[in-house]
Amino acid sequence: MAEKDLKINKEPKILKLEELLVDGVEVEVPITFDYPTANGIVPVSAIIRPLTTVEWEEATTKSIRNDNKGFTLEIIGKGLLNDDGEPLNPELLKGMPIGVVNEIYKQVADISGIREDKEEQYRLTRELMGF
């Protein structure tokens, strides 16, 4: 086959917003992360889903009412699913190591369209505080 016969389309397929909105939060995304156990750190798999704007805002509002406590657990409580596709028991989440909670939070936030750049957050905070 001649080189000119090979046409590789390097442009990503652009999807229509409506197509994605139809799927919405029904999308389930498999993830992996490390979990500490008595026998050392083991790789674990789980299923997460993106959160809607309303769910994210509800978690934010609830966190503010609770003196900014529990926001991360609220997010993963809605985004981390059990094997049946249902949210996990909130009491189970409270017993997870903080590093695991933070890792799952980051992944739920990412698929929900929330890109968090810690350096950018620190820079903005310093600017707001006049440093």
Radius of gyration: 19 Å
Mean pLDDT: 81
- Helical content stands at 40-55%
- Measure the end-to-end span: 62 Å
In short:
With 131 residues, this protein is an alpha+beta fold. The chain has helices spanning 17-23, 53-65, 71-79, 90-94, 98-111, 118-129, and strands spanning 29-37, 40-48, 80-81. The mean pLDDT is 81.
Structure explained in plain terms:
Strand 1 (29-37) and strand 2 form a beta hairpin. By secondary structure, the protein is of the alpha+beta class. The chain has helices at residues 17-23, 53-65, 71-79, 90-94, 98-111, 118-129, and strands spanning 29-37, 40-48, 80-81. It has a three-stranded antiparallel β-sheet with strand order 1-2-3. It is globular, with a radius of gyration of 19 Å.
Please describe the structure with a list of short key phrases separated by commas or semicolons.
131 residues, alpha+beta, three-stranded antiparallel β-sheet
Helix-strand blueprint:
Elements lengths: L16 H7 L5 E9 L2 E9 L4 H13 L5 H9 E2 L8 H5 L3 H14 L6 H12 L2
Antiparallel strand pairs: 1-2, 2-3
